[in-house]
Amino acid sequence: MFAVMLQRWHEIAFLHWSCDPALLRSRLPRQLQADTFEGKAWVSLTPFLLTGLRPPLFPHRLGFAFPEMNLRTYVSGPDGPGIWFFSLDAAQLLAVVGARAVFGLPYFRAEMSVDIGTRRGNYMRRASSNLKKMSGAPWEWNFRVMTFSSIIPWGWIRESDGRTA
Question: What domains are there in the chain, each with its CATH number?
Fold first, then answer.
């Protein structure tokens, strides 16, 4: 296996909300079901600062750096567990266009910023057009961000022909 892109995640937070799995049913492809823990499904908001986005063999200093945020849930499907992304928002238009065109991921351009201080980090985001349509009003967050590492092995995405991969 080889890397298609290289990147690092910094100033990341995982914010989780539990819900009844039935609430997610209509938002998932029929071959996927919400993964549950103690009978509850989970929706997560994950903001972070992405740095060094670049193809392999390119030096880190030539990579892009920008805030990103995704709204996701955890699912089970015919091939096992995974992540279903409702929205992937990024403050870098080229990254949004590239991820949509090459990987078919539901990326949207959003106005975001990260302010890293000596005692805490603040993450500010205004809604992308995608989340405005979903919520009916702009969303805005300003919260403390904790730093730690995480590895996510794969996610579920919808192919252009309607299949789920």
Answer: 6-144 (2.40.400.10)
